[in-house]
Amino acid sequence: MGYKSIAIDGPSGAGKSTLARKVAQAMGYLYVDTGAIYRTLGLAALRRKVDPENGEAVIPLLDQVSIDLRHGADGLQHMYLDGEDVSAAIREPEVSRYASGVSAIPEVRAFLMEMQRDLARRNNVVMDGRDIGTVVLPQADVKIFLTARAEDRARRRYEELRERGSEVDYQTVLKDLLARDEKDTHRAAAPLRQAAGAVVLDTTGKNLEESFRLVLDAVEKGVGA
């Protein structure tokens, strides 16, 4: 029997990472946060003052920087940029814009996609992102499109950032989220969209535990657990 793969896609702030991580823990699967990989390259561009939407400037970074994904003793995914653990740094608001920019470049997506597919070939995985079910793992055993109203997603992101000590205001977070939605759904390379055969789950108004049960039930039905 081959390894099982669960693809969870959806817009920014939908709770993909948190819920995918919890589902992976419950199922005993490897969790892969693909957005963190793009955020790491986005951070590299930010630190080097490279325009994230300039492909000619970004593509050389693929050979210049080292991006590594490791799972620590805590079972969590950690991202390393040139040997530095940047798992916290990539979550800063400014990195989101850079991540969105670099992820729209076809050469970047092709380069990083093999890293993601290789993990799925060697493990049972729960993988989240924006094009997992449509591009990265189109043959995934279960495909979920996770969404929620923009206001709900912005509130969750705002609270998350405040807990980390970031000085942000809700309206700015909402504005940035809507801009990210627009860019992700209209980009030429692997735009955000619902995969064929995906189960659509809306977590608007639901707390973390309610959302988790919703996703876990869909996954268990899909893999026959």
Instruction: Tell me the distance between the termini.
Output: 15 Å
Q: Kindly estimate the percentage of residues that lie in beta strands according to DSSP.
A: 15-25%
Shape: globular
The largest sheet has its strands arranged as 2-6-1-7-8
Count every beta strand, where a strand is a DSSP E run of 2 or more residues: 8
Reported for the largest beta sheet, the result is: 5 strands, parallel
Which structural class do you get from the secondary structure elements?
alpha/beta
The unreliable regions are none
Number of helices: 10
Q: How would you spell out the order of helices and strands? A: EHEHHHEEEHHEHEHHEH
Classify the helix fraction into a percent range: 40-55%
- Could you report the average pLDDT, rounded to the nearest whole number? 91
Radius of gyration: 17 Å
Keywords: ATP-binding, Cytoplasm, Kinase, Nucleotide-binding, Transferase
EC number: 2.7.4.25
Protein name: Cytidylate kinase
Domain Cytidylate kinase: 6-220
